[in-house]
Amino acid sequence: MIEGDLTDTARLASLGDETPEGRSIVVLAGIGAAAPATAAMVAFTAQTRVSGIDIGDRQIRKGAVEAILKLRDFDADAVRQIRALTEKVARASGTPLAVADGDRLLGAIALKDIVKAGIKERFAELRRMGIRTVMITGDTPLTAAAIAAESGVDDSLAVATPEEKLASIRAEQAGGKLVAMCGDGTNDAPPLAPAHVGVAINTGTQAAREAGNMVDLDSNPA
Known about the structure:
Order of helices and strands: HHEEEHHEEHEHEHEHEHE
Pfam families: Hydrolase
Subcellular location: Membrane
Number of helices: 9
Protein name: ATPase, P-type (Transporting), HAD superfamily, subfamily IC
GO molecular function: ATP binding; ATP hydrolysis activity; P-type potassium transmembrane transporter activity
InterPro entries: ATPase_P-typ_cyto_dom_N, HAD-like_sf, HAD_sf, P-type_ATPase_bsu_IA, P_typ_ATPase
CATH architecture of the largest domain: 3-Layer(aba) Sandwich
């Protein structure tokens, strides 16, 4: 599979993905062939961690590596290559996503969260004020650990579902803590709603913006 084919297949699989990650893939891939009118979009959900498109009998999927690998019995050598590649991406604080076309595992794409300039210093300032920062993410433990080290948060929770994010917020509140939550994804909406301060990122999903009690119009929490 050549890079151009992988890129366009990932774009097709992201057409029904309204998350910031899905939209960024579509933009990065550029203009490609439009999906047939009869195609059925498979929307990304925090539960499946997969998005895609069905074009007739052709099923294209893109998503978290482990979620994709559970879909079919892919070629063992391709699986080994994907696992090695995604571990390398995760250790570099990137988010690896696998792409499959039917029973063919095509490859992986890497997304990189850009740590905002000055955020590490801001977290240090919050720490001096007695405010603890925790990153709760759906990313893999390797990716989460790398981003946590780069950004300077006090703690992190990886591979977190919306329910686990919500439970974390409620547990802190039950302990008498005032909790501020910042998020941009659909899976951030459940914990944004009950937080004492729920800050939605303006470039995030509509669900997040509706759940928060304020919106960061500059999309720059630093």
